[in-house]
Amino acid sequence: MSNAENPISIRKIGHVGLYCRDLPRMVEFYTRVLGFQISDVNEKGMTFLRFSADHHSLVLAKMPEEEQGKAPGAQVIQQIAMEVANLDALKRIRKFLLAEGVQVRG
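Request: output the structure for the sequence above.
Response:
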């Protein structure tokens, strides 16, 4: 497949989401030690942190109970978001990924 057929053009990493075994402790670390600011906290307790003009650059979420007993480091990435040009570009990318056999959630 040539690059001309590939619609993916990532502008930047939008944000990264991490699962945390001890969410309050991680929020405290990222705010007090690293200087992030809390932008938002949703109904599930997911905490959105920023260090720039963007609403958030980092999301901290409580690790699901079923993952808690696993080895350290198990399933720590909750999400990685990448910014694209617009919604039409996102739709083209989704169609492309599905055609490539990628399992797309949501």
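The two ends are 26 Å apart (CA to CA).
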